[in-house]
Amino acid sequence: MQIPIEYYLILSAIMFSTGVVGVLIRRNAIVVFMSIELMLNSANLTLVTFSSYLGNSIGQIFVFFVMAVAAAEAAVGLAIIIALFRNKLTVNIDEINIFKW
Amino acid sequence: MNLVVVLFAIFALVCVSSSILMVTRRNPVISALFLVVNFASLAGLYLTLNAQFIAVAQVIVYAGAIMVFFLFVIMLINPAKEKKFLEYKPQLKIFALVIAFLVFVQIAYIIFVAHPSNDVTRDVAQSVKAGTVEQIGRELFTNYVLPVEAVGYLLLSAAIGALVLAKKKFQ
User: Fold this and answer.
1) Smallest CA–CA separation between A47 and chain B, in Å?
2) What is the ipTM of this complex?
3) CATH hierarchy code of domain A5-88
4) pLDDT tens for residues B90-140?
5) Contacts of B13 in chain A (CB under 8 A)
6) Which of the residues A1, A37, A54, B111 has an alpha carbon 20 to 30 A from that of A99?
7) Sign of torsion, CA A23 B166 B35 A45?
8) In terms of domains, do B2 and B77 share one?
């Protein structure tokens, strides 16, 4: 018995929606960042699913690049959060409104 | 019921429940630990898809390196307990749930209309071959050697950028 491809895709859709909820309802900048990582991972799951079902390794190579970019993004984003915390002494995204006046 | 189906069910359950717990816990450290569980179960799902290299890279890069980043930053800046924001703005929570539900319905509609299992049937031997380190390494260092170099420079510049940003500069 084989698992239909839709199961993996729906699982990935559920994870993506959970990430959307996290980005919208959480106030802590670090947790918002973690929700973004969750959404990136659900996209990775879709890519690996199609790569495996089509028997083609290009999708997995793309996932490799997505992982590298996600690592770079996490480094820069967390550095931005640290710099913001130095200036504003908070990571609550409602209080970080320095672009607004 | 063969082993792959059982493993898929277990990993999918762990994956969904840990992601929901991650979003709903108030303490960011507990959220980060649930995210580690989620990444580990994703690595298991990659193994059920015969993607060995990606499964190992998931454990090393995400569950290892990126989560150490997150936990380190949480430890460093010690964020105060999140204010009970949603208690006095409950309409925001409903709004977020509606938006997420609409996103989910959109994706599910596309999946069920396109019905990809009509077009793709999984050839197990071929998918095992596609996921091996050998196959991926050969592709990376022949056809995709330029993007690999570019990603190397991207990581270097991200490391330098992170250092510059986190340096004590303003006040």
Assistant:
1) 11
2) 0.91
3) 1.10.287.3510
4) 788 888 899 999 999 999 999 989 888 777 777 888 888 888 999 999 999
5) none
6) A37
7) positive
8) yes
